[in-house]
Amino acid sequence: MYSSTVFLRSTAPRFGRSLATVTHNPQILTPLRHDWTRQEITKIYDSPLLDLVFRASSIHRQNHDPSKIQLCTLMNIKTGGCSEDCSYCSQSSRYSTPTTASRLVDIEPVLEAARKAKENGSTRFCMGAAWRDLAGRKRGFERILQMVREVRGMGMEVCTTLGMLSPEQAKQLKEAGLTAYNHNLDTSREFYPQVITTRSYDERLETISAVRDAGISVCSGGILGLGESDQDRIGLIQEVANMPEHPESFPVNALVPIPGTPLEGNERVPHHTLLRTIATARVVLPGTIIRLAAGRNTLSESEQVMCFMAGANAVFTGEQMLTTPCSPWDEDKAMMGRWGLEGMQSFEQASVARKEGAALGPQTPRTVSEAQAELP
Hints:
GO terms for molecular function: 2 iron, 2 sulfur cluster binding; 4 iron, 4 sulfur cluster binding; biotin synthase activity; metal ion binding. This protein is of the alpha/beta class and 376 residues long. Helices cover 35% and strands 14% of the residues.
C-alpha cells in the first residue's frame, strides 16, 4: 500500500436511479491519493475502453449522485487584446483572428446575463477577462469585485478567470464572495512550452496555490487536441491529482480551432480520446467535478451521454462560451430530460458548501475527499 493512500467508506446516500449493471454500494472502499505515478495512470488510461468506462462509472456512483449535472454559464467580460501567446486562443493580440478587442463591460449587463442564466437553470455563473494578470487594473478589479458580490447575492455560485493572481488579490475575491477560480494548466509540463511561452507552468501553479490558500475552490483542467500525446494527457491528470488538494472541478476542453491562431489547422480530437481522458480523470480524481467544456457542441447526444457515464458531471450551457459556440439551455434541458438527468442546485457540492461556510444537512452527499478532510 502506498504510504499516502487513504481508504474511506463512501458516505453518499443511496440514490433512487441507478444502472442495472452498477448498484450503488456505500460499503465499497474508495482510495484517495496524492502520490500517483505516471506509470500507474498510464495503466489506467491504456486499459480497454469499455472496462475503463465501467470502472470510472462505478467510482462516480460511489462519490456523486449520477443523476445530477452541474449547469454553468460563462460570460466574456473583457474580450481580446491579451498579451499572452497561447497558441489556441483567438484573444491573443499576437494573432489576426475574428475576435475584436473590447473594454471591460459595465456591471449591469453582467447582472442581466446572470439573471437570465439563473432563470434557465444555471447555478454557477463564470466571468472571463482576457488579461495576463491584474497589474495596473485597480479600477477594473474593483468593478469585478462588485460583479462577484452582486451575482453571489443572487444565490448563484460565482467563478472568474482573470489570469494570474497575487495572494492578496485572491483574498479580495474570496471576501467578495467568489466560489471558484479557473486557471487551467492546459496540458502536461513537458508539452506546455509548445503551446505557450509567455507564462510558465510554475506561474500557473503559483496562482492555483494562491487561490487554494485563500479558501477559494480551484477549477483547473486542460485542452485536448493541441497536438499533445497520450502521455501529455496523462501528465496533466497526474499534475492535478498530486496537488495538496484535488481541484474542485476539472474542465476537459476539446480544442475548437479558430482561424488565425497557430492551431487553426488542428484536427478535431476523437471522441474515444475525450472519453478515455474523462474516465481516467474520474478514477484518479474521485471527488472532483469533471466539466465537459469547450467543443461539447460538436458531440452528438450519444457521445455526450457516454461522457456522463464515464464521470463527467458538469457542462457549460447557454448562448456562448468565451469565443466559441455553446449548447443552448433548451437543448441541454431536453437532452437531460431524455436521459433522466437533472441540474445540481447551487452549493450542492459539499466541498463548495464547506468553503462557503454553509451548514451541511444530513442528506448532503460527501465524497471520500471531503470525508478525509474531517479526519484528525
